[in-house]
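Write out a record, fold above all:
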Amino acid sequence: MEEPNIEQAELPLTEPFLAAVAEAEKLIAGAEFIRDDHDLAEGYDYLQGSIAAVLQLSRAHGKSHPYFVSSTGPYTKMGLDNPDTLYYHANVEPTGEYLLTGVRGNTVDLSFQVLKGDYTATDVPGGEDAFDDRRIEIAEDGSYTLRFGPPKQNPEPNYFQLGEGASMLAVREVYGDWNAERKGSIRIERVDTIGTAPAESDVAQIRKRYRAAGRMLLTRVHTWFNFPKWFYLNLPVNTLTEPRLTPGGLSTQYSSVGHFELADDQALIITVPKSDAPYQGFQLGSRWYISLDYVNHQTSLNHQQAQVDPDGLIRMVVSARNPGIANWIETTGRALGILQFRWQRVGREMTAEDGPSIELVPFDKVAERLPHHAHNQIDDAGWRERIAARQRGFAERMLG
């Protein structure tokens, strides 16, 4: 029996990761937008979730026997995660061939995206980097089979090319009704390794995992610190853009973005047409570029959750205080944050007429600025029931 290398075993295997955690903590503590302990506590909570995420992802990094893992979720948030979406990904490489088997289910949108290690598209000709389920053949019972792999002369239907540098296959399931039973499923196999077992990890490989987790952590913090600066913070505060194709996102997704700064006695009234797109959603995010608590607070609304006025418009009020209306969007005590609309699975070009208008008003003027205020009102019992529906829908979805 081979004797273990005691000298190597005693090296501080986790040291690179712990150094990365310490550096990430300094970045969090030094964020320029922190105003109080509430902001700082949220940053440290974000850091804890990020640590948990990168440790999990580094263990699932092997490409020989891929499986889907949660990319981001309620406890491992990043990248302004959409409260209506379940995110999965599996690691791939361009030389491998992968079989995906699934059932379409009852989601309002199901999409696939191939990414490189730097989280950018691989520029595959024909738009095969990002597409929704309208590009694939689906059986009457909702089942489908996809293959991803190297270029082929005469690929069969549902075969998609992996571009140069491809390292990740991402899947998004988007829900309108949180309380609907989840009926979809998906799995991935690598064609040339299915039925075999991967090699067990040795100390050297585990050491690499910790190093990789440290790099992932710092990349995660740096990337999402800068993303709002690139796409949000250069816009005038308390405004929203016209609908535009989402940068780096799906080819059938439009977004309208902005950032808010609100005092306790101010509110934003946002008005938008009820869309003909299969998915329309609005949410708030923090300056850490993550969703706010969407389970216990109404910090987001989609096309099925929002109350629609008799004129076909959705009117939402963003404020710290409760205005007593069904479409209140809670800032949960934050003075600064992100505003985000998404339209997905669109079938046409979206224009300014499809997008939102926004008005900054004194909080005590909200009622008189809502043309259907009597229709919008909700009492305390009704509000608790709205929150209870969110909590129940989330609990069932997480067990799906």
Remarks:
- The two ends are 46 Å apart (CA to CA).
